[in-house]
Amino acid sequence: MSATSIHITALDGIVNVNSLFTLAVFIGLTWNPNDPNNSSLTRFDPPNAFHVLSFTCFLFSSLVALGLKQAIRLANRSINNYNGGITNHSVWSVDLARVNRSFLLVGYAVSSMGSVLGSLFLMLALVNMVEITLGILGCGGDGYYGYLAVVPLLVLVPCGLLIYVSSLLRLYSLID
User: Is 168 helix (H, G, I), strand (E, B) or coil?
Assistant: First the structure.
């Protein structure tokens, strides 16, 4: 498997995951089966603000990854055209594309930053939703269910993001 196909596959993964999150956040913002008038969209409260910020970050990250993927494919096409369009590879193989290393690193970093920020804003939106549904955290009383919902969220999401960022840092060190 060539380095170009590995980069294309990695960018496909970023786009696919971000697209799912973008769709989920968009549906969460626009559809409420209990509110036929969509009155939740007429006011801009903090849960909606975090949903919009999350949507923006995921969409931004996906667009950057798609642009980077297209740049790799265009660089690959220009190399094949420069060589007269004749290659010794089969139709299904992906040839090596010469892409500026700094451009590739910045593209990955910006796309990754968008994904991480989108995840953090989505986590904050979910914490706000739990506070609206189950009561404000830290006010005593019947907050057991709120903590039961929020603590795993506040533990597992940062752990997942830590694994994601550490694997990306490893990827950045391997790009040649």
Answer: helix
Torsion of CA 17, 53, 56, 158, to 10 degrees: -30
What residue type is assigned to position 53 of the chain? L
Amino acid at 134: L
Measuring CA to CA, which residue among 95, 75, 83 is closest to residue 1?
95
Convert the pLDDT of each residue in 83-131 to its tens digit: 555 554 443 344 556 677 788 888 888 999 999 999 999 899 888 888 8
Rounded CA gap, 38 and 110, in Å? 34
List the structure tokens of 85.
């369009």
Pairwise CA distance, residues 138 & 141, whole Å: 9
Between CA 136 and CA 129 the distance in angstroms is: 10
2-14 core/surface letters (b: 16 or more CB in 10 A; e: else): eebeebbebbeeb
